[in-house]
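Q: Here's a chain of 293 amino acids. Please give me its 3D structure as tokens.
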Amino acid sequence: MRVGVHINRFDHGGGGPALGAELAATGAAAEEAGVSWLSVMDHYFQMEFNGGAEAPMLEAYTTLGYLAAHTSTVRLGALVTGVTYRHPGLLAKIVTSLDVLSEGRATLGIGAAWYDREHEGLGVPFPPLAERFERLEETLRICRQMWDPQANGPFEGKHYRLAETLCVPAPVSSPRPEIMIGGGGERKTLRLVARYGDACNLFATSPEEVRHKLDVLRGHCEAENRDFDEIRKTVAYTGEPATDGDLAAFTRDIAGYTKLGIDTVILAPRIGEPAEWIERFVAPAVQRLAELD
């Protein structure tokens, strides 16, 4: 099992002027520790349970571009982009640019969006849930079409219409950037994973719950004639042992997931200065998880 790091707070003690240096140090520490994935949130406002809208928040893809320039091996992505945040053609172009400039390390992490306050606050339309899922599926189709060099042409959907799907330069990743769909909704989200996703991201609620979600995904894969094993499975872990630096407790928590085929556990502690924490806790955690059977 591999380890990823999710940066979800920007409340550095030095304020905004210190964030660039902290992010550069975080990227260096992550690669030195053997971390395989580095992500940021994609939100306009900080989430209510993580400091609230008045807390600092950086724009996701600008931040990922900065991280790309300060790393060379770790995979980069947003965990996850809300489908409402950007027009799908623009989103595909943004992720392509990240993929090109990172030499093939970009993942498109995407979901149906949920944070109504940030939409209302900045005047971004926030349609009902059913429509957001319709837009999510159309966005996935548009991105796949834009990343297919043989498929340039119009796209006609219920919510989006594109006269052309040109994407030049093309992504570096082959055959295209990875698509990670976040969430564990059993009727819609996991069906979209089976139909369009290269990876899924579930919450590490419990091994039993994650096993159930994967069984549901397997059923959708069978219905879609999709190979379940070719989908990369990841979980987001927000337990206190990671934030507290309790490696033994963390290892006990994670042990139950090792038989489920989880590729990567993504650690998401709510701290604004992650570089030192990566050196102190994540580096030994990488080694400990590599030893688990």
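Q: Can you summarize the key feature?
A: The first strand starts at residue 2 and ends at 7.
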